Sequence to fold (305 residues):
Amino acid sequence: MSKICIGISGWRYGPWRNDFYPKGLPQHSELAFASRAVNSIEINGSFYSLQTPERYQHWRDDTPDGFVFSVKAPRYITHVRRLKEIDEPLANFFASGPLQLGKKLGPILWQFPPNMRFDEERFTHFLQRLPQDHKAARACARACAERLQGYVGSLPRGNARLRHAVEIRNESFLCEAFIKLLRRHKVALVVADSAGKWPYVEDLTADFVYLRLHGDVELYSSGYTARALRRWQQRIQRWSHGGQPDDAHLVVAKAPRRRASRDVFCYFDNDQKVHAPFDARRLLDKLALDDHLLTEPGVEPEVAL
Fold:
């Protein structure tokens, strides 16, 4: 059985208050509310700065059983260092605590800037260094900076697979060499809907699919119509059953080996005009995945916050 996660990118936005969030809901209760209105959230604060193990633990404990977080990796690695000399920054990221999410940890998202072109040697070096499970991530974390060494001992034991997804924003990546490289390392290529601003591709390169819906008409601002959501519903169902849409936008025409199923992670990032949480709810409804959710947007949840 495939897992389908539909949610939002981030949850702490001023314009959402008194709209998606009920009037008077304390800010410290916003995650508890949002995690009972959708079944997954993409953590994006980790993109801007390293978090702490305590913060990841709090997010884990503040959300219901079965909830899933995706974690956006630091821009320091992707945008500042641009994948150069990243051994310590990579160790710092894993030392900072994403493993504290435990069973609630979903894919790790690596987003690259529009002006970064595909360099096969550099990306090969990067993908080879990505830990593929929790044990490897703990080993990676031991090489962190001295100021973070105190975190390493608190990393949870046990082992589970790690998943990685890459979002590209430069057309130089639209080549067979890049797709083959992702497939070799079982890393997903993000399907990014960005109102035509960045490349839109749907090549399947892993055993899961990762979508980021930034807005199909106006970047970060426009909401999705019923027709647009129905299109995403149909594509998600096709992916989740192991296939791909007949009209898929592909770099490599040859399809990967068919699978019985694929997990799907979909995040709405059209947050500027408060569309994201409502669009996520509507898509969950279309996929008949909202029965277990505990709250309605704008309504005080019947849970202890």
Remarks:
- The longest helix spans residues 226-240.
- The chain has one domain: 4-286.
